[in-house]
Design a protein that fits this description.
Blueprint: H1 21-32, H2 35-42, H3 59-72, H4 76-85, H5 87-93, H6 105-117, H7 120-134, E1 142-151, E2 168-172, E3 175-187, E4 193-200, H8 209-212, E5 219-222, H9 230-236, E6 241-244, E7 249-250, E8 253-254, H10 256-269, H11 273-282, H12 293-311, H13 313-320
Parallel strand pairs: 1-5, 5-6
Antiparallel strand pairs: 1-3, 2-3, 3-4, 7-8
Helix pairs in contact: 1-13, 2-7, 4-6, 7-12
């Protein structure tokens, strides 16, 4: 992105100004995101400068706004307001209010719909992972599989007077949840998310197992929801050992040997909780924003790409000498 000289409107006269955590975060992510590769990916489906009508806003600028929505869990109108409110966000995007306004919510919405129409979420995820592999963060031969519930509104107080028909309810423990499931396959060494899938919440975790394995595993780790899937694991990863947790309680009896094995397996499997923590607590993707599985799958794929960059931002910055 071309740096511009700030106008008088953007000039600061604050003697004691301190860089905020948001500014530091955006500075780090600006350095680790492979902007050139991602813009090259999207460019073939983005309007050219010479078209009829209003000139298109720069592709990289729109992509930066799109990523702000993921990092700070912002809707289309909310991110427009945030750009006017936050100096750090404007500097990250490259907007100078002395020269131009921020893109409106309709423009931001159309950009998101363009990505959804061409199913570029999966391509963005693959491009980021390829970038990480070229930087030395390659996927190893151990995969941890897991799923988490992403809540959806269960209220029928909307225009159609009904809940989202693609979302379903499921029981976890003694509580019922309504929404979808995010299934991920995570590298057991680097914690990189290498595969993503989404389904309704009532789909059993184990049914997503075939799409979560890359085929070169020597070990597959998972909780007790994946027990009994040895044949599926063998079919999709022939060299893999089934390291999923086993049932160790039978009525009033406890199999101490199996319990110790589960404790060891869980110590490895616990690494999958870190990407989920970033996805749901740091990025705020604990609830769906759109109706239907397809739109939320696109959001999930882009979010997982950004989770990988967030997890590895410090070693990437050291490698870049920042």
């Amino acid at each position: 992105m071309v740096n511009k000289q700030n106008t008088f409107a953007e000039a600061s006269f604050e003697r004691y100004r301190k860089a905020t955590r948001r500014e530091e975060f955006l500075k780090q992510m600006n350095a680790v995101v492979p902007w050139a590769k991602l813009t090259e990916l999207i460019e073939p489906v983005y309007p050219s400068e010479g078209g009829a009508g209003r000139p298109a806003i720069g592709l990289e600028r729109m992509l930066r706004i799109h990523f702000l929505q993921h990092w700070f869990n912002l809707s289309d109108p909310a991110v427009e307001e945030a750009l006017y409110d936050s100096r750090a966000m404007r500097e990250f995007v490259g907007i100078d209010l002395g020269r131009e306004p921020a893109p409106d919510e309709t423009t931001i919405c159309k950009f998101r719909h363009r990505l959804e129409k061409h199913k570029l979420g999966k391509e963005i995820f693959a491009t980021v992972n390829a970038h990480l592999a070229s930087a030395g963060f390659k996927v190893s031969t151990g995969t941890i599989v897991d799923a988490t519930i992403i809540s959806a509104p269960s209220s029928t107080k909307n225009k159609k007077g009904e809940r989202d028909p693609e979302m379903h309810q499921t029981k976890k423990g003694q509580q019922w949840y309504f929404g979808m499931k995010a299934h991920i396959g995570v590298d057991s060494r680097t914690k990189i998310i290498h595969s993503v899938a989404a389904s309704a919440a009532n789909v059993h975790d184990s049914l997503a197992l075939p799409v979560l394995l890359h085929g070169k595993e020597t070990c597959v780790w998972g909780d007790s929801a994946y027990q009994g899937q040895g044949e599926v694991i063998c079919k999709h990863a022939r060299q893999a050992r089934d390291m999923t947790n086993r049932r160790c309680r039978y009525k009033d009896q406890v199999d101490e040997v199996e319990k110790r094995k589960n404790r060891y397996k869980s110590s490895v499997r616990a690494k999958v909780e870190h990407p989920f923590l970033i996805l749901k607590k740091v990025f705020g993707f604990a609830k769906v924003r759109y109706r239907g599985i397809a739109k939320n799958t696109e959001r999930l794929q882009v979010a997982c790409a950004l989770v990988n960059l967030f997890q590895l931002r410090r070693p990437l910055l050291r490698a870049a000498g920042v």
